[in-house]
């Protein structure tokens, strides 16, 4: 069954003013978004990953020590395959390594490393071993 335009309350191809208003507002919104993204792509500067690692604390468990730490990325870009090296100031041979697959920009990740002997929080030395850019 075919219906003509008069059944929908209009004269042929005329559109209600509301459709024109929302169409223009949507078009302006899309153009503004494209202008903003273009500006960001051309003129924004991004800092490389700035990784800072620090020991949160050390817990004793069954004659061993578990050192918890956090990595903070203060940069504007992400870091992948972040390697953290931790050791004790008491023993040079007790270095351990943990790898994080991804540290997002302006985020914090936490981890833990186990040591076979009882140690104190001040005895843990920790540093970033390296990373790759994703």
TrEMBL record:
Highest taxon of source: Bacteria
Residues annotated as transmembrane: 20-39
Keywords per UniProt: Membrane, Transmembrane, Transmembrane helix
Keyword Transmembrane belongs to the record: yes
Designated name of the protein: TIGR02588 family protein
Organism of provenance: Paracoccus siganidrum
Lineage per the UniProt record: Bacteria, Pseudomonadati, Pseudomonadota, Alphaproteobacteria, Rhodobacterales
């Amino acid at each position: 069954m075919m219906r003509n335009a008069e059944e929908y309350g209009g004269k042929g191809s005329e559109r209600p003013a509301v459709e024109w208003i929302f169409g223009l507002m949507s078009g302006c919104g899309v153009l503004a978004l494209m202008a903003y993204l273009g500006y960001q792509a051309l003129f924004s500067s991004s800092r490389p990953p700035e990784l800072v690692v620090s020991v949160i604390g050390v817990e004793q468990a069954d004659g061993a020590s578990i050192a918890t730490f956090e990595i903070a990325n203060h940069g504007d870009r992400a870091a992948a395959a972040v390697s953290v090296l931790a050791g004790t100031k008491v023993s040079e041979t007790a270095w351990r390594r943990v790898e994080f697959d991804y540290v997002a920009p302006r985020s914090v990740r936490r981890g833990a490393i186990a040591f076979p002997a009882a140690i104190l929080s001040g005895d843990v030395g920790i540093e970033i071993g390296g990373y790759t850019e994703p």
